UniProtKB/TrEMBL annotation:
InterPro entries: Sll0314-like, TPR-like_helical_dom_sf, Ycf3
Provenance organism: Calothrix parietina FACHB-288
Record protein name field: Tetratricopeptide repeat protein
NAD recorded as keyword: no
Gene3D superfamilies from the UniProt entry: Tetratricopeptide repeat domain
């Protein structure tokens, strides 16, 4: 069990709502490798799992192309034709959270948990992993619906999450899918809690997680939140190079450039930030409406910052 469970509930409550979206818009937003060795499993070159072609296509639509409507279509097909794959349910729940659809989030959180529990009998590694994911999603439902009143129950769910992750890790500590999810969770918690160190989580991602461009994107987010903008930009550039069609990676790069430009009072960096916001917005029809509004708002702030330099 990780040390941050000793955190005061007031701190954990302040973070868990944002962690719910951050983790499951990222940690279960599994990207396909650019040239996967085995169809259906973007994580493993050895001992691949039959995750399913439609689920794989949904990954590709969201996380290579950044195309949410296309992903929704593939997920409908996946849920019909690949009913035992918990990752499909987890992705559906994550998209519901992104769309502020709490009822659908609740439905597919439960389905993720049930599919994960069922999978334990035949694949205990992934079964425990997705039982953890489903449990986390149920915690997100609680905190979304009840706010502060659900803090204690949500924290109880979070403890259960790490119990299941520990079981999965005991089976295969170096599994790339496990390390991707657990690495993202640990990293997002570490950068949001002042007494924790993100180095271990970064090492977990770099050493054992896959695919690489999701690793790079996660570490870029971590360094952005730690205000280490030079390192963040380096990893963001790697993610852009690997997933050049995805507007969200340009949005991430724009955020980093904006903060770096503000820090250095650099017109060039701010202009570069605005250019990357514009690339992201050029594909706004592919993105959730709330995300488009957020990108537009941040672009406006970057423009204001540029104007303030005269």
């Amino acid at each position: 069990m990780t040390k941050w469970f000793s955190a005061p509930q007031s701190i954990m409550l302040a973070r868990i709502t944002s962690l719910a979206q951050a983790t499951f818009s990222a940690a279960i937003a599994f990207h396909l490798a650019m040239n996967p060795a085995f169809a259906g499993d973007p994580f493993r070159d050895n001992n691949p799992r039959a995750i399913g072609d439609k689920t794989e296509a949904a990954f590709r639509a969201v996380f290579q192309k950044g195309n949410y409507p296309e992903a929704e279509n593939y997920l409908k097909q996946a849920l019909a034709s690949e009913p035992n794959e918990p990752l499909a349910y987890a992705m559906r729940a994550s998209l519901a959270y992104t769309n502020n659809d709490v009822a659908t989030l609740a439905t597919y959180s439960t389905k993720t948990l049930e599919a994960g529990q069922k999978l334990i009998a035949t694949d205990p590694l992934r079964g425990n992993l997705y039982t953890a994911v489903g449990t986390f999603l149920e915690g997100a439902v609680i905190i979304t619906r009840e706010g502060a009143g659900g803090a204690a129950q949500a924290l109880g769910k979070l403890r259960q999450v790490y119990q299941y992750l520990d079981k999965a890790e005991a089976i295969s500590a170096n599994d790339p899918e496990l390390n991707l999810i657990k690495g993202y969770m640990d990293l997002l918690l570490a950068v949001n809690l002042p007494f924790t160190n993100p180095d271990e989580a970064i090492q977990r991602l770099e050493k054992n997680a896959a695919p690489q461009y999701l690793v790079d994107r996660g570490i870029a987010i971590a360094y952005r939140d730690l205000k280490n903008y030079s390192q963040a930009l380096d990893y963001a550039n790697r993610a852009v190079k690997a997933t050049a069609d995805n507007p969200e990676v340009y949005y991430l790069k724009a955020q980093i450039l904006h903060e770096q430009g503000r820090q250095q009072n650099s017109r060039q960096l701010l202009q570069d930030a605005i250019a990357n916001f514009d690339i992201a917005l050029s594909k706004k029809s592919q993105l959730p409406a709330d995300l488009v509004k957020q990108i537009q708002s941040e672009r406006s702030r970057a423009n204001d910052t540029l104007k303030s330099l005269g």
